[in-house]
Amino acid sequence: MDWDDLRIFLTVAREESLSGAGKRLGIDASTVGRRVARLEGALGAKLFVKTPQGYALAPEGERLLPHAELAESALSGAREALSGPGDLTGQLRIGAPDGCANYLLPQICAKLCENHPGLEIQIVALPRVFNLSRREADMAIAVSQPQAGRLVVQRLTDYQLHLAGHDDYLKSHPPITSRDDLRGHRMIGYIPDMIFDRELDYLTETGMDWAQLTSNSVSVQTQAVRAGAGLGIVHDFAIPFCPGVRRILTDQISLRRSFWLIRHADDRRSQRMNRLAEALALGIRQEVARLQALLAVESPSQVHT
To answer: How much helix, strand and coil, in percent to the nearest 5, is found in the chain?
Structure first.
């Protein structure tokens, strides 16, 4: 059995299409199809079933998958054993919710790239849960702890969120001294049917059940607050990037959430992935603490209560 054929099998299983696998591997789809057919012929088994949605694993393919993943992990481990514990190299794809991807990961990854010139980092910012079994990412950051799957889950850090508005909006609208005053203000939040994780249902905790301006992206919501479009829940670590945005009702509305680092279970055997996870975890803890500490120096006049 040829390892390269197994590698192609794994990529088709994860991409669920010949064209998607071809793009990931840098070869054309027809070549991917021929290599899959060659592997099926060598094994005497049908590995995929073609469906309207793409290529799904057949029962024989499902049985082969964990063995192919073990071979992939063993090969990666062999490379690490020969290269030693020097600089981190190769590609790392990190999946993250867009708030983390926009306001935390650029600084963290810049330091990683500076310390490890041979490392190529891809940041995939999507407002949904990543599927690590399909290798959409090498590791993912999530806002809630997954309850199923062959995963390694690590709690990274807590972070805070508050209701906020821009100075221009706050000066031109009625004063806010309590939750009751919010009824007379424009609210910014998530599109209700596109909240992919219950931890993101921020407005419910303010007592508001409706927002006039909504987006599936928390970064878009934050920029809408910065533009003076209304009031919204904003990550404390994002506020230093938004001049003029101030927290309000800090003594009445304060949310706490956590970031979780999620990895595929097989990656525990990889020293490279362990080192990358450790560096990423440390970077996130330090960057959240640094940015939130900047708000601690706000003067009373800058915090609307």
So the answer is: 50, 25, 30
